């Protein structure tokens, strides 16, 4: 049921913010008309973290920490206040065992295209699995004062292809209740606090004669607090508590409960400036051997070939630790960008062994970058490729040395 856990996550696809401490400040109470303000070409990244407990038939199965990285671009803003938006969603879960450093493994990626109106309404295809939560927030399109309330319909769309073989999004409708709570001051910014609550109760239609295990009843709640920057027309940050219970036709009861929070930051396209040239110059000036940099679809990738670990292990040698310390100095120039650490092996041993070794070596590099304070663990994603993506023939020792590599991608998408 691991797959289901990763899909009960809340996504709010909205513009730029950074999460900082709040202090309450009184502002004059006046009417506000809340709305989104889109801009053609505006791009940003949302990083949300979900901590949840998973229960099966009332018995706790496991705890899960899930990081969702969403890169968003407002492709075109229209005169009616709406915008066409493209978004790429990547969901990762902490794969580490108790006592280990957290390892956020680069997970499945989704691409989604939709239109969103100035008051928050989505127009989205029936086959789109992301975002999970649609039409939150919805604004009333009129002036509201502190204490005013309104309601609006929305839906959650879950990806249940793996566990239930449902090939289209599983949609659960709800009616959300909104309350305008007032204003808080965040680092000198005036933010409007809006409470959003909704309950879930949905009985799924089951085909006559069904013999498959399908969702029968979905229940739960969401309790969110939004911090809205109305001057700029975007969500500054939010936090949430939630509980979802799915009862299936086989009698199984699945429960997910926990809390979510999100941060948003603006990202420049690194390939449009001189960032790549700067990184290449630093590698050369620092004398970092067997390291190169190139641009690709995800950002700028630093490739460290012939990376040295202790024999058949993921323990970095001292020479490689020194190399990573130098690379860490380069990465400090990109404080707002997440990193993808990819591990690769030469063609030796079994496929399963190569895969596991490539994953462990990616983890080793990520752990060391976190130890150096370059990034927090939730900004470091890892992925192992085994020997599936060679850059040289595995028929020579020189080629094998090149294929034994770790790639560090500075993500701008």
Could you explain the architecture of this structure?
- By secondary structure, the protein is an alpha+beta fold.
- It folds into two domains: 2-266, Lipovitellin-phosvitin complex, beta-sheet shell regions, CATH 2.30.230; 270-411, 60s Ribosomal Protein L30, Chain: A (2-Layer Sandwich).
- 15% of the residues lie in helices and 43% in strands.
- It has six helices and 18 strands.
- It has helices at 2-5, 161-164, 275-286, 318-331, 351-371, 397-403, and strands at residues 43-56, 59-77, 83-93, 104-105, 109-116, 122-124, 133-134, 149-158, 170-186, 189-203, 215-229, 234-248, 253-266, 291-296, 299-305, 339-344, 380-384, 405-411.
- A twelve-stranded antiparallel β-sheet has the order 6-5-3-2-1-13-12-11-10-9-8-7, with no helix packed on it. A six-stranded mixed β-sheet has the order 4-17-16-18-15-14.
- Strand 2 and strand 3 form a beta hairpin.
What's a quick, concise take on this entry?
With 413 residues, this protein is an alpha+beta fold.
What shape does the CA trace take?
Answer: globular
Whole-number average pLDDT? 88
State the major sheet. 12 strands, antiparallel
Q: Kindly, what is the distance between the CA atoms of the first and last residues, rounded to a whole number of angstroms?
A: 29 Å
CATH architecture of the largest domain: Roll
The first-level CATH class name of the largest domain:
Mainly Beta
Strand order of the main beta sheet, please?
A: 6-5-3-2-1-13-12-11-10-9-8-7
Give the SSE string.
HEEEEEEEEHEEEEEHEEHEHEHE
Task: Predict the CATH topology of the largest domain.
Answer: Lipovitellin-phosvitin complex, beta-sheet shell regions
Number of strands: 18
The percentage of residues in β strands lies in 35-45%
- Helix count from the secondary structure assignment: 6
Radius of gyration: 23 Å
What structural category arises from helix and sheet content? alpha+beta
Uncertain ranges:
1-27
Q: Roughly what percent helix? A: 10-25%
Number of domains: 2
């Amino acid at each position: 049921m691991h797959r289901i856990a990763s899909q009960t996550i809340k996504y709010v696809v909205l513009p730029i913010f950074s999460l900082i401490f709040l202090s309450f400040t009184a502002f004059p109470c006046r009417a506000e008309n809340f709305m989104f303000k889109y801009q053609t070409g505006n791009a940003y990244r949302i990083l949300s973290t979900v901590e949840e407990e998973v229960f099966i038939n009332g018995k706790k199965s496991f705890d899960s920490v899930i990081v969702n990285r969403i890169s968003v671009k407002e492709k075109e803003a229209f005169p009616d206040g709406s915008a066409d938006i493209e978004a790429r969603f990547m969901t990762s879960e902490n794969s580490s065992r108790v006592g280990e450093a957290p390892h956020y493994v680069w997970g499945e990626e989704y691409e989604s295209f939709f239109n969103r109106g100035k008051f928050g309404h989505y127009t989205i295809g029936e086959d789109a699995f992301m975002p999970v939560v649609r039409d939150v927030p919805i604004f009333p399109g009129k002036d509201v004062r502190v204490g005013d309330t309104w309601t609006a319909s929305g839906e959650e769309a879950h990806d249940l292809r793996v566990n239930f073989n449902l090939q289209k999004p599983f949609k659960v409708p709800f009616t959300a209740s909104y309350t305008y709570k007032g204003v808080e001051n965040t680092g000198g910014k005036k933010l409007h606090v809006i409470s959003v609550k909704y309950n879930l109760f949905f009985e799924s239609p089951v085909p006559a004669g069904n013999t498959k295990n399908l969702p029968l009843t979905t229940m739960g709640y969401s309790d969110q607090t939004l911090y809205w920057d109305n001057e700029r027309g975007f969500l500054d940050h939010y936090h949430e508590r939630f509980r979802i219970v799915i009862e299936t036709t086989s009698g199984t009861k699945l429960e997910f409960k926990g809390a979510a929070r999100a941060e948003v930051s603006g990202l420049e396209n690194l390939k449009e400036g001189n960032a790549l040239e700067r990184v290449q110059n630093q590698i050369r000036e620092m004398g970092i051997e067997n390291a190169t940099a190139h641009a690709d679809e995800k950002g700028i990738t630093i490739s460290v070939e012939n990376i040295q670990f202790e024999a058949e292990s993921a323990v970095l040698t001292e020479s490689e630790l020194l190399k990573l310390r130098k690379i860490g100095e380069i990465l400090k120039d990109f404080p707002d960008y997440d990193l993808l650490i990819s591990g690769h092996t030469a063609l030796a041993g079994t496929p399963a062994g190569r895969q596991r070794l490539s994953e462990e070596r990616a983890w080793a590099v990520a752990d060391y970058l976190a130890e150096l304070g370059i990034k927090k663990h939730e900004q470091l994603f890892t992925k192992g490729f085994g020997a599936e993506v060679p850059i040289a023939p595995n028929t020579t020792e020189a080629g094998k040395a090149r294929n034994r590599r770790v790639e560090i991608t500075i993500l701008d998408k």
